[in-house]
Amino acid sequence: IALNIKQWYQRRVRGTLSLQVRSFLPVCPVHIHTQLYTPESPLLIQIFRYPAVNMVLHVVTMVTMLVSVGNALNCYHDVYLDNVTEHTYTIDHDIADIGDGIGNTASGEDGYWRTRHFDYITLGRFTDDLESGDGSTITGGYYTADGDLIYSTTVDCDANKYYNYVTDQETGTVTEIENGDLETPCAAGDEFDMWLKVEQPQTMWFNYQAQSLQTGTRTALRGGQFKWEKEVKSRINTKYDSDTASYFKISTTGSAVITRFAFGKCFIWPDSVGTNCTDTIDWLMERGKLAGRMRGVQEVHFTMSCLDSPFQHYYAYRQEAVHPDRLAKYFTCCCVDMRTGHVWDDDSDTYCAAMNPTCPLGCSESYDNEIYQAVVDYHTASEVAAELEVVEEV
Fold it and tell me: Is the pLDDT of residue 277 over 80?
């Protein structure tokens, strides 16, 4: 079984899962639970054939550690927009109402949000008539209820640069604190994505097209009785920290338009990518927190699961590495459409649940018989062909 587990990891789409396990082995325990199912089980995703009996090896990884929040399905708010140039999302519950002595709650109290680590995600596109000099910009800003700026960034397509701003702690005026070059120039017809990741009261950053629009680190002490130093993200020296936030505003000029906005401890992906599960994984991985990239938008072990080749463009009908929502602590599972990856019936309340430690959902609704019959037929045909080849050799 150990050999087959290794082979299964190596066969995963583009090495995604093997990368996840290898990258976390040095820093936290990884428990691998194996269960055997008959081929007719809905868990027919990874198939191993044995001489005496056909069995399916189903591997579940549970990473037992405190994790950074911010990925997958199950967003708190998600709306499609019709090529608008401005959208404001007002947070409908006190963003500082965080449990167990965090934010404005007392120690031991439950909060509306279990932790911080919020994502404000914007998807958009550049129209086909974009030209250099047309003044195309994208600006994302985080504000207090009184309209005071906490933190913002502006992507300037003509200059191919970004500019970050805060309200200065001493003067109270909006001040530029950093600028830099864009790695991906704006181009007519291209899609874009911009994320604001809020990790702590003064630790937040923007990502644009898989590029962090912020630099700088600081040395912090970690550990209990025995301390050690670690390089971490620098703080934003702003007069108003993230616990005072009331709304997020995204606006564009020129040829840039907004097509979707989401908020929560989650991730989304463009519909143009989502028709192929492996493309979705690649898109998310480019924006993840990999080695040397501390300002990704999510930990890479929160991701999607695809069927094995040659059916890797389909999503597994039940996803078990979904990011925890505002109340869950570890992984969440969701029943999803195997062709799009969307939560089944767009109903997260019914079709998503906390892993405890396994998924309590059967997901019979999202199990696509047509797809899985094709999987069974393919492996049956492959097995017959292999047996015929052995006979011919004999």
Answer: yes
